[in-house]
Amino acid sequence: MFDIGFTELIVIGVVALIVIGPERLPKVARTAGHLYGRMQRYVSSVKSDISQEMQLDEMRRVGQSFKESIESVSSDVQQQATVVDDYLRSEADSVNKVVSAMAATEGERPASEPAVKRSESPATPQQSLPLDEPDQNAQALAPSAVVETAHGDSGGKTS
Fold it and tell me: Coil, helix or strand for 97?
């Protein structure tokens, strides 16, 4: 700390012996040792306090940068949500316009004429089946066939 060598300590000891005297020198040396220990503890305490403050300051900076990044992401998500919301609103408005236009054109037809004829509209396979008839594909795939298909067994044996 002070860069004092052994020769300097001998010189200081000789001068202290001459100035203080041999009777009081042990008491003065003990007091100097206690003061030196207190000084070391104080310096160590100050160093640890400075180190803690530096770590705390670093944590504050990291926390602030994390908060800023979270706010940035939040604003980006909010902007994207606004864009999606605007798109969905415009699509909903266009669907509402189409529905109202269809309702308006349906109101112009006579009541006896249906709006859409069954023979004119393309029927999907599910729409062409009557509701009371069972599906032929469901009968073909019995539960054992489903298990065999799921496990990859083609021989009809189940394990």
Answer: helix
